[in-house]
Amino acid sequence: MIALEEAQAKVNRDLAVLPPTEIPINEALGLVLAETVAADEAIPPFANTAMDGFAVRAVDTVGARKDSPVTLPVVATIAAGSVAPRPLERGEVMRIMTGAPLPEGADAIIMVELTRPAGFDVHLLAEVPAGNHVRPAGDDIEKGTEIFHPGTVLGPGHLGVLASIGRQTVKGYRKPRVGVMSTGDELVEGPEPLQPGQIRDSNRLTLLTMCAEAGLEPVDLGLIRDNERAIEQALRHGVANCDAVITTGGVSMGDFDFVKAVLTRVGDFSWMQVAIKPAKPLVFGLLDDVPVFGLPGNPVSSMVSFELFARSGLRRMMGRLDAERPRITAIADEPIKRHRDGKTHFTRVFVSENPAGQWRAKLSGGQGSHQLMAMASANGLAVLPNGDGVDAGQSVEVIHLDALAIR
Q1: Model's pTM, two decimal places?
Q2: Among 152, 244, 264, 356, whose CB has the most other CB atoms within 10 angstroms?
């Protein structure tokens, strides 16, 4: 057996970041920026009002009170998207709507709630200072400002800013297309009754959705029977159309592990027995320069193997700097035991944070590599080095599978 870190290093050496490309901003959500973006124009591009009200000269409001208003004529109305017909003179006001440009000569806004209509005039019921409710040009972004840098993961707010400065594309890293295929004569799809020896294929859907959850672009390569020619055709189709391919099943030491036979014949692959439980068998290599992961067939083993070997490397291919799952220290609510076998065990647990900000961990169910329900109930993998595990009340390292829960 080889150490987990050695197996991960073998994988990561062959996973290169995809070349950056121009991406329309309406397709860039969740992608990583590969350039520095500077604003070619100020935002907002002109001084405008933050309120519905009246554009005034602040000096004309001096002394205005509710019981002693200042009365001025309304000489124009400025809607958003229009401009004042002329500059504002002393002793007059212009009606103005939120977002409309401040007329020349005005230096403040008095909001409509502090006024009272008086025919063609308006009563000002309060004194306002210069700059009141005025958003200056460049108040959000000044022209020439570097606003985003390489490595930024583009969210809705970033895309809104890019649209506001007129950008239609950005240079970034696209999502890797990751093909997923299941293999095995024992597998069936759909609701038809199972025949003796058959099981339903859950791994392919699970891995496809794990790819999607990781921010990758999943590609369904189908369920392939235990036939070397069919497996080779599916693999070659996958590497011709994807940036990486994941297979599940057929990579152990059995006589009918056809994936192993095909990969041995067509490419340069490493066959690893990794000192971990579950997910000990792993196959990795390049086929036509495309990385191919051969994951175990047991449902939990395939999921843990994806987490430990595929997820972070595939995320790095799309330029993600936060490729790794977060790790936390939790207190075991119950004994989390194991036996000594020279391996690191990854035990499925549920973690939660108590009011004091302390993480607690408890087993999520049975720990067999076939017991998918416990994995579904887990949000963490407790990392148990070779030994006897931990007792209740002891600390344990946990790979947190729900990154959104980490503040």
Answers
A1: 0.85
A2: 244
